[in-house]
Structures are given as C-alpha cells and as structure tokens.
C-alpha cells in the first residue's frame, strides 16, 4: 500500500516542484504592485502578517492587459507565427522521418545521429549562424546572385520570414523524432496488404501510414508549437522591429518598464493559452497509452 | 560548544575564501575600456578580474533590482543610477579606500551631483553626448555638399531620410535618449515629464520610421566602420571608435560625429558598488585603480570618451583632449542638456510609445 502510494506520488511531486511552485510565485508577483525597491514589487512575502499580505494582492494588472491592444495583438501574432512554423516543420520533418524509417536497418542509427548532431552546438551560435546566412551580404544572397536567380539582394534578415526559418530550423528535430518513432514501429506488411487490396501506393500512404503515425504527428506538433509560441531569442536575433511576439513584449515589460507584476500577468495569460494545447496533448498521450495496453 | 562550532565553521569558510584567489566582478558597457588595463589591474593588484559587458541600462537595472547580481562594480548612467540609489541598490563609497578621488574633476562632479548628491555612491567613469554619426562620403553623395550633418534635420526630416535609406540608417534602441532628442527637434523641453508632450515625439518618428533600418544600441559601431550603414544616431565615443576603426582598416570610409546644433543630450556613466557586492573591498581597489590619472587617460585614449578625471587630462592624446566632439568647447557645452529619470507611470508611457514607434502597434 505504502509502496503504491509512493509510486503514484512521484509524478505529482514532480509537477509540484517543476510546475506548481514556479507558477504560484509568478502568479503572486502578477497580483502585486510595482515599487522602487529590491525586489521591485510589493508586497513581499511576510509570514508574520499574512492578512495584510493577501489584502495587498489584486487583479489590476490583468485588467491593464485588456486596456491596451498591444497585448492581444502580440498573443495573436505569436499564435500565428507558432501555427505557421509548426505547419512548415511538419511539412519538412515528415518526409525526413519517413525516409529514415524506410532506410535500411543498418543506416538508421547513423541517420538518427545526424538529426541529433546539431544539438552538440549551442542553440545561440546556430541562430547567430543564420544571421550570417540570411544577411544582405550573406551566403544565401551571394549564392542566389551568383546563380543569377536574383539581381538585387533579398532582404530576409530582420523580417518575419527569417523568424520562420529560424524556428523551423531549430525545432525540426523535435518534429522528426516522434514521427520517426511512430513510423519505425509500423508493420510494413500493412502496406503490402493495402496494396494487395487494390490501393495505389499514394492511397496506401494516405489511408494506412498517415493514420498510424498520427500520434507521432501530434506529439511532434506540440513539441514545436509550445516553445515556438513563447519564443524570444529567435525573433529578437532574426526578426525585425516589426516582429511582434509575446516573448518580446514580456521582455519589454520586465526590462524597459521594470514592471515585474505586469510582466508576470503577461506570463500567466500565456500559460493559460498554452494549457489548452497541453491538456489536449496529455489526453492524446493517455489515449495512446490505453490503446497500447 | 555550539558557538564554538559555528565560529570554527565561519573561520573555515573565510579561510577557504581567502585560499581561493581574491576576485572582483565588473559589469561595464561593451567596447568601453582598453583591455590592456584589465591585465594591468590583475598584475598590479593580484586580484582576479572577471569582466562582463552589457549594452543597455535596462538590462543592468533589472539585475540590480532583482538583487544578488554577484557583481562588485557596475556602470549605470546618471538617470538610472539615481533611481537605483533610491531603490537601495548601492552602498556608499568609502573615501578612505579611494585616495585617487583627489584626481576627479569638479566640473563633472558638479553635474553628476544632480543624480548622486555629494557623489556619495558613485564616481564618474566617462561622459559624452548623444548625436549623429555620418559616413561623410556617402551622405554628401546622396544629399549634396551642404547636407545638414550637424543638425537633427538630417535624421528627422523625411525628405532627407528617404534618400539616406538607400545606404542605411540606425537609431539607438534607447527611448530615454531618442525621445528627448525628438522633443528637442520639435522645440519642446527635452526633459519634459508630461505624457502629452512626450506623446508628441510620435509625430517625429512616424514619417521617418520606414527609412530606419534598425534600432540597436551597439551594432552601429561596426556597421558604420564597415560602410554597411551611412548614418547612425548614437553615442559620441562609439561613433568616434567607428571613425577610428575605419581609418585603421583604410577602407575609404570617413566617419564624422556631431552633437546636434539644436542641442544634444549629455550623459554620465557612473561606477558604483552594489549593496550586496560579494567583495566591496576589491571593488574599492578597482575604482581606485580606474581613478589613477594614467589608467583613466589610457581608457579615454582608447575609447574616445571624455572622463571625469582632471588629473588624467595631461596624459590624454591630442586626438582626444583636442577634439571638441569629445571635450566640447564652451559654446557646445552651453548647448547640451541633461534629463531626469522618468517616474514609473511616465516610464510606461515612454516604453509603450517606443514599442509603437518601433513596431507600429
């Protein structure tokens, strides 16, 4: 009984430490007021007078977010960027994962290694490298000018296009790996059966392979969508001043305005937006687990 | 017995700290010192120096207000310093540990007193102006020989900016400097804290916004020097460093700096010791080292910024002390203005306005 209890409590303990505690801290700051002090908000936690502590908390920062259209525009723009990037990551990642799963058995560890290999270099350096590739004197423009496809250098760096390229590039492995693992487990004889029953290869792919890799697609999409939504580094390095993303708004609240409470309110709302896909993701995982049992 | 154990532990802890070489952590602006000075400091004092850089007051301020930054010496600008002193972020300097205080220049000290009364918390490191850097060749090619390179007209008049956009224009990503500049252009008080007056800055930026390639506070040094851009609104010494780098590279790029004739902002970067500095004693040693006349002169000769050290002036090269872009003459000096920190509510208006100007939202 005790053992069972301990076993069950482990994931909850994990959630408590890594999710609930940080969330409560941020939520508390979002209900506070700014102050010119260290730390720059009041009230700070005080065991001796909990009554006064709780009375000082209020929701005015959340009301403030509704008063200025900057915030919902930034949320919408982030959602749009995250959805489009996820779509392109899927579009590029699926064929790669498919190719890997269909490759001869002895090649697969090498191919897997190649997907993971970029992680050996710092994420920041890889994004910086894209600045060199995409700038107007960069490799890409030099190459296109050389081939004669364009006569004037393209402006890609500091635009939304550069942000899409950066996100798709960075998160591609997160899409490939779950899809690959779904496709890898698939029984090849199912395709043969479909073809025996009169399916064309394309139809067999659509009717058999895609549905069977559905869970991989869903898992990959969430793994890309969730971090892309709150992305800060990629838009600030590759994006222009016209790129509006919630990560950047959060940074401005925190650094330029020194308004930790409003910054925390922005973060809490971002989390609420993310909770919906996370819950959907969780449910999908559960279904999958049940199906396997 | 218990007390004894505690003392013993404390003694061991202290002993342990002393056994590891003493170190001082300094957080300064990027491109802001002659790096040979850093080696010289370590050789002279035997203290390990850990030197980190930033390029925005906002980043520094957030670290200060969060507390526990781990730095022993930081370098905020005047207005930010003032606010952080109020927040209790700094400790008072101990003059007994700073014999080189005698080298400081009263003219500058008098001005920095408006941010740090009696200069109790900080020493002046460098000061300068915010103005306009141009690639003379390219700008005169586009706008003619009589291009207004010493006037705000150059960067705030759409007809000029439309042409300059071809060769690239950068603005500082620093609202606390760009907005006063726009207000000066409108003939308003640049130090205004009235949200309605501040809001008028928008009408200056909106017509020229399409022609601004980037808002950034450090990239313009290299961009100007390499000829990637032809105009930058930036800090005096940074632009003069670009001038110097271009001259060294001998790439045919000639850079000139002007504090706008309509009036330009004067700022002061102050060295201070955070209240929770791990090693305030070493921090004092570092400040005293910096205030040494020859060291300070070496720094200024390298970064092309004026300093607040009277005694260093005899060691400055003619390129620095004789350049009115660095040590302005009386006439220019009278034309410079300073600003006060914005109160929190006004700060929000300013940041919001700046986001709107940059992103159009």
From TrEMBL, chain B:
<protein>
    <recommendedName>
        <fullName>Putrescine-binding periplasmic protein</fullName>
    </recommendedName>
</protein>
<keyword id="KW-0813">Transport</keyword>
<comment type="similarity">
    <text>Belongs to the bacterial solute-binding protein PotD/PotF family.</text>
</comment>
<feature type="signal peptide">
    <location>
        <begin position="1"/>
        <end position="21"/>
    </location>
</feature>
<dbReference type="InterPro" id="IPR001188">
    <property type="entry name" value="Sperm_putr-bd"/>
</dbReference>
<keyword id="KW-0574">Periplasm</keyword>
<comment type="function">
    <text>Required for the activity of the bacterial periplasmic transport system of putrescine.</text>
</comment>
<keyword id="KW-0732">Signal</keyword>
<dbReference type="Pfam" id="PF13416">
    <property type="entry name" value="SBP_bac_8"/>
</dbReference>
<dbReference type="InterPro" id="IPR006059">
    <property type="entry name" value="SBP"/>
</dbReference>
């Amino acid at each position: 009984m005790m053992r069972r209890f301990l076993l069950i409590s482990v994931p909850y303990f994990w959630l408590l430490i890594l999710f609930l505690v940080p969330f409560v801290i941020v939520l508390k700051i979002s209900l506070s007021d700014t102050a010119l002090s260290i730390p720059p908000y009041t009230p700070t936690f005080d065991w001796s007078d909990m009554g006064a502590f709780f009375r000082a908390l209020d929701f005015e920062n959340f009301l403030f977010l509704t008063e200025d259209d900057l915030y919902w525009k930034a949320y919408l723009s982030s959602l749009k960027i995250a959805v489009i990037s996820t779509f392109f990551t899927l579009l590029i990642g699926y064929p790669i994962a498919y190719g890997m799963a269909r490759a001869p058995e002895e090649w697969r560890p090498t191919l897997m290694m190649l997907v993971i290999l970029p992680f050996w270099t710092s994420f920041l350096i890889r994004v910086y490298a894209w600045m060199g590739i995409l700038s107007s004197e960069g490799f890409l423009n030099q190459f296109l000018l050389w081939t004669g496809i364009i006569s004037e250098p393209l402006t890609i760096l500091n635009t939304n296009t550069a942000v899409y390229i950066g996100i798709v590039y960075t998160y591609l492995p997160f899409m490939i790996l779950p899809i690959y693992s779904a496709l890898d487990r698939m029984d090849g004889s199912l395709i043969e059966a479909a073809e025996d029953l009169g399916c064309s290869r394309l139809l067999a792919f659509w009717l058999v392979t895609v549905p069977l890799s559905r869970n991989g697609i869903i898992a990959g999409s969430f793994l890309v969508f969730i971090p892309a939504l709150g992305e800060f580094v990629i838009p600030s390095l590759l994006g222009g001043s016209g790129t509006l993303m919630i990560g950047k708004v959060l940074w401005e609240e925190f650094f330029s305005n020194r308004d930790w409470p409003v910054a925390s309110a922005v973060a809490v709302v971002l989390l609420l937006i993310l909770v919906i896909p996370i819950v959907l993701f969780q449910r999908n995982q559960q279904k999958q687990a049940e199906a396997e049992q | 017995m218990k007390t004894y154990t505690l003392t013993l532990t404390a003694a061991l802890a202290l002993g342990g700290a002393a056994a590891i070489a003493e170190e001082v952590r300094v957080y300064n602006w990027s491109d802001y010192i002659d790096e040979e000075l850093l080696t010289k400091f370590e050789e002279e004092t035997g203290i390990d120096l850990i030197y980190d850089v930033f390029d925005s007051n906002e980043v520094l301020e957030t670290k200060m207000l969060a507390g526990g930054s781990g730095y022993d010496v930081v370098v905020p600008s005047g207005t930010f310093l003032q606010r952080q002193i109020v927040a209790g972020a700094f400790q008072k300097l101990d003059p007994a540990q700073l014999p080189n205080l005698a080298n400081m220049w009263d003219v500058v000290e008098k001005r920095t007193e408006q941010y740090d009364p009696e200069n109790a918390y900080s020493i002046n490191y460098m000061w300068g102006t915010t103005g306009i850097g141009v690639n003379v060749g390219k700008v005169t090619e586009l706008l003619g020989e009589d291009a207004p390179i010493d006037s705000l007209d150059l960067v705030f008049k759409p007809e000029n900016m439309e042409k300059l956009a071809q060769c690239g224009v950068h603005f500082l990503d620093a609202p606390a400097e760009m907005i006063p500049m726009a207000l000066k252009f409108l003939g308003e008080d640049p130090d205004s804290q009235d949200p309605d007056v501040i809001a008028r800055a928008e009408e200056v930026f909106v017509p020229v916004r399409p022609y601004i390639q980037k808002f950034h506070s450090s990239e313009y040094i290299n961009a100007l020097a390499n000829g990637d851009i032809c105009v930058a609104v930036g800090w005096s010494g940074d632009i003069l460093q670009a001038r110097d780098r271009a001259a060294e590279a001998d790439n045919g790029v000639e850079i000139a700096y002007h504090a706008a004739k309509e009036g330009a902002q004067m700022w002061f970067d102050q060295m201070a010791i955070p209240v929770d500095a791990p090693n305030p004693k070493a921090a004092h040693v570092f400040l005293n080292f910096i205030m040494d006349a020859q060291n300070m002169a070496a720094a200024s000769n390298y970064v092309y910024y004026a300093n607040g050290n009277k005694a260093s002036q005899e060691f400055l090269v003619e390129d620095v002390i004789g350049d009115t872009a660095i040590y302005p003459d009386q006439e220019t000096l009278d034309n410079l203005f300073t600003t006060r920190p914005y109160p929190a509510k006004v700060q929000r208006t300013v940041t919001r306005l700046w986001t709107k100007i940059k992103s159009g939202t």
